[in-house]
Amino acid sequence: MGEQLTGLVIRTQSGFFTVDTLQGPIVCQLRGRLKEEYQETDLVAIGDRVTVERLETGADTVGGVIVAVAERERVLSRVAPRSAVGTSKEREQVIIANPDQAIFVFAAAQPGPHLRMLDRFLVAAEKAAIPAIRICVNKIDLVPDLAATRALFAEYERIGYPVLYVSAKTGVGIAALHDVLVGKISVFTGPSGVGKTSLLNAIEPDLGRRVSAVSTATTKGRHTTRYSEMVPLADGGYVADTPGIRAISPWDVEPHELDGYYIEIAPLVADCKFPDCTHTHEPGCAVRAAVERGAVSAERYDSYLRLREMLEEEYVY
Questions:
Q1: 16 close to 29: Cβ distance less than 8 angstroms
Q2: pLDDT tens figures, 255-275
Q3: How far are the Cα atoms of 14, 105, 223 from residue 195, in angstroms, in the given order?
Q4: What is the per-residue pLDDT across 294-313, written as a single tens digit (0 to 9) for each?
Q5: CB 21 within 8 A of CB 52
Q6: Long-range CB contacts for residues 124-129, cutoff 8 Å, separation at least 24
Q7: Can you give the pTM of this predicted structure?
């Protein structure tokens, strides 16, 4: 048996895992017996803490195998895109294990903000009980009236999600973004083309991240990042740079529990007349009453209804 080390998975690509250890990074594969569990979820993902057994694979090359994966404190996941939601074929795709915070990056323009997609990210993060959740709006240099952009995101700030307005191109807001990243394991994720990689370049120019332009024909971003990677920051901490996501279905969220992941709706549920209230039509619904008096935004309520309808259509009880 070779030397065993513990470390943090900082990159995953095509069955190979780069593990950051006290002796430096080691490229590893899964031990055979662990692969048997590698069916319905990603057994190893960036952010996982693992035990590695070193192997001498050549005169100048040292690799290893992952022999154990520590229990995760939390995990940000979605339903794998090519699996079927709510069926036996549903498969979990882990975006990151054990993050300290999630930063959902959207663009002020090119592409314009997709708030229902943002709501799904927020549901996934609330389900994962991630300690800190922030929204980052990039490309503010592309909008002539920032007040209009702020108005789009004002409701999120009102209910408790901090929003950072930044421009990777001009540098506005980059220092504040850097400060919230230091010393933490953070995940940057969001739709394609919103400039996540450009932001990393702006935060630390020597990272040398490759950037691809947004397709002007479709206004959808090209996938610049082809793998998931934890990028170490010079001042401490890691940022997980993940491939752009075109769609997200939160993992393991049942229709009847969805109201608990909309943070402004959750406190109202106990005041509904019926304990199994769906907040769609029942009399004495505290949520619908809150919408009517403006305490819950109509847009967020509509987002809840649409996501619940999707979950009910696809979920197998």
A1: yes
A2: 999 999 999 999 999 999 999
A3: 24, 8, 11
A4: 999 999 999 999 999 988 88
A5: yes
A6: 124/76, 124/77, 124/78, 124/248, 124/250, 124/251, 124/253, 125/76, 126/260, 126/261, 126/262, 126/263, 127/250, 127/251, 127/252, 127/253, 127/261, 128/74, 128/75, 128/76, 128/77, 129/74
A7: 0.85
